[in-house]
Design goal:
Elements (H helix, E strand, L loop, with lengths): L1 H18 L6 E6 L10 H13 L3 E9 L2 E8 L2 H7 L14 H13 L4 E5 L5 H8 L3 E6 L2 H10 L7 E3 L15 E5 L7 H13 L2 H6 L1 E6 L16 H6 L2 E9 L11 E8 L1
Parallel strand pairs: 4-5, 4-7, 5-6, 7-8
Antiparallel strand pairs: 1-3, 2-3, 8-10, 9-10
């Protein structure tokens, strides 16, 4: 199901881009109802729409049929949040979100792989942690920027994905009593992700049982705008090898920063070996 959802979402995005005439800084879509292409539980789908409609980064929405799929398109602006997110001395990656639907697909993959918790590192508006929570997982959002955390809290009234305003490299993960967590690291390897991932790994490696049960998701890119890694894996190959990690899967999904790119963002899932 994951492969089908990811492939259909990418195809839908490409059709959307080819016909989009708007001028919004960011835009994304969510199917309105369950279909053969998107066999998603109606409650979960409605809850994804609720996240978008309550989220202040989106200022407009409209229905549009794309490739025979009725969708709601959400348009928005993240400028003030992006600017606020880069002011912190220890900030490693500015706020630039994945799509809500992409966050759902990744969280569903984590659940199907047997992970019981999602730890959304550099979480922005908390959308991945939110998706994990609606899928019945325990979710924790770690974000250094207070403005974004306040935004998260406004979205967590009914679905509490545990927003934490904290430097992820300094956070005490043992306090969460994690069983089998999957850590999502926000930021491309070439855009601060490596430094963020290295700092969090150092904390997790100090707890051998936690390290042995942990999974990881890294946001990677195939874009020629960024330097490649000699070990590939969308910029993460050397890091994965140096930390004795084992590849689980790479899933290609749309994000805000890949909207005008021919290649989607590559989410590289690995585990401790």
């Amino acid at each position: 199901m994951i492969e089908k959802l990811a492939k259909n979402l990418v195809n839908l995005k490409k059709q959307f881009v080819s016909n989009y005439e708007g001028t919004s800084q960011i835009q994304e879509l969510i199917p309105i109802s369950k279909s053969e292409s998107f066999p998603i539980d109606e409650y979960e789908l409605n809850t994804l729409h609720e996240f978008a409609t309550k989220n202040p980064i989106y200022y407009n929405s409209f229905e549009k049929v794309i490739d025979n799929i009725s969708c709601m398109v959400y348009e928005g602006d993240i400028n003030k949040y992006w600017l606020n997110s880069i002011q912190h001395d220890s900030s490693h990656a500015p706020f630039s979100p994945t799509w809500i639907m992409s966050g759902y697909v990744m969280s569903l993959f984590a659940k199907e792989c047997g992970y019981s918790e999602i730890i959304d590192i550099g979480s922005g508006d908390g959308r991945i942690a939110y998706c994990g929570k609606i899928l019945g997982m325990n979710s924790y959002s770690i974000e250094i920027d207070n403005m974004l955390v306040e935004l998260q809290k406004s979205l967590a009234d009914n679905i509490n994905f545990n927003p934490n305003c904290f430097d992820a490299i300094e956070f005490d993960y043992s306090s969460l009593n994690l069983k089998k967590p999957l850590f999502f690291i926000g930021g491309l390897a070439q855009m601060g992700g490596l430094e963020l991932a290295a700092g969090v790994l150092q904390k997790i490696k100090s707890n051998s049982s936690l390290w042995g049960n942990a999974g990881w998701s890294f946001a990677g890119t195939l874009s020629k705008k960024y330097p490649s890694d000699p070990k590939n894996q969308a910029g993460w190959g050397t890091f994965i090898e140096n930390n004795a990690m084992q590849l689980i899967e790479t899933i290609s999904l749309p994000t805000v920063w890949s909207f005008h790119e021919s290649d989607e963002t590559q989410y590289v899932f690995v585990k401790s070996s």
